[in-house]
Write a structure and sequence with these properties.
Layout (H helix, E strand, L loop, with lengths): L6 H20 L14 H31 L7 H21 L9 H31 L8 H42 L9 H34 L11 H16 L5 H22 L4
Helix pairs in contact: 1-2, 2-4, 2-5, 3-4, 3-6, 4-5, 4-6, 5-6, 5-8, 6-8
Length: 290
């Protein structure tokens, strides 16, 4: 998900965040008469899942903001549409999130979970905002006929940013849905009220978030493909009967493979996993329910 040089620093930030989040969740204990909740294996897994979500979010936020700063100049003229799309995404995610809000025996549950949710939401929002900026940059992408190598390099960097931002959004949201499923499992284990957190609600929420991610990423993918085709169209096709046609065909074939215009199995699989992460997270979190 992250670049190799920055991995140690991000791992340190994530580790610190994991420790602080765990301390925050455990502070204050549980409500009177509900201390058994803290001793369940499901609660321990929930704390671990929430801490891991915060750790990944803290490491990913800096990466997302860095990509945003790089993309902002290329997407300046599209900012009204980008802001509107990003706010719509936030609204579509926030409304069902609030609907699924629930209580638990954990002391100050609402305050603690609210703070964690706000931070995780900021990270996922910044990643999706970055995706919309990639879309704008790809739409305005104009290859330089005199410098084809530079155009290809710029395009590959743009595609790399899109894939990284999608992985960040999918991973963070997927971990959050795992935590939501584990919270229900922990509540069920002590027969606590789960009125707003039924199994069907969590599964539908995971499916809903996956669909939102897919709808958000598809325009980005389409814009990147269109930008890649503008690169390949820089060299007009010679007469099929000429000697130059064979060389042109070979160059076009190599360029299509480099730009992944005919599909890349591993790349497509990776994007599919990122989009499906919220649904898979919901399924995984519910698997621990007794």
């Amino acid at each position: 998900m992250f670049g190799q040089p920055e991995t140690p620093r991000l791992l340190l930030a994530g580790s610190v965040s994991l420790g602080l989040c765990t301390l925050l969740l455990l502070a204050g204990g549980a409500e009177p008469g509900q201390h058994a909740f803290l001793l369940t294996p499901q609660f321990a897994l929930w704390v671990l899942a929430v801490g891991l979500t915060v750790a990944v979010s803290s490491a990913a936020l800096g990466v997302s903001l860095r990509d945003l700063s790089k993309l902002r100049p290329h997407a300046r003229k599209y900012w009204p549409g980008i802001v509107a799309s990003s706010l719509l995404f936030a609204l579509l995610v926030l409304v069902p999130h609030v609907h699924l809000a629930t209580r638990s025996p954990l002391a100050f549950h609402g305050l603690k979970v609210g703070a964690v949710s706000a931070f995780v939401g900021l990270t996922s929002f910044s990643a999706v905002l970055g995706l919309f900026c990639v879309d704008a940059a790809a739409r305005s992408f104009s290859p330089e006929p005199a410098n084809a190598a530079r155009s290809i390099e710029d395009y590959l960097e743009l595609r790399s940013r899109a894939e990284r931002l999608l992985r960040i959004a999918g991973t963070v949201i997927g971990l959050a849905t795992i935590a939501r499923g584990l919270l229900r499992s922990a509540l069920v284990s002590v027969k606590y009220d789960t009125t707003n957190l039924e199994r069907e609600d969590i599964l539908l929420y995971g499916l809903y978030l996956s669909l939102i991610l897919a709808v958000s990423y598809y325009p980005v993918y389409a814009s990147l493909v269109a930008a890649a085709r503008r690169i390949t169209s820089q060299q007009p096709m010679p007469d099929p009967a000429s000697e130059e046609f064979g060389q042109w065909w070979q160059r076009q074939k190599q360029l299509n493979e480099l730009l992944q215009l005919h599909g890349d199995v591993m790349g497509t699989f990776g994007k599919a996993v990122a989009v499906a992460a919220p649904l898979m997270g919901a399924l995984f979190g519910l698997a621990f329910e007794n």
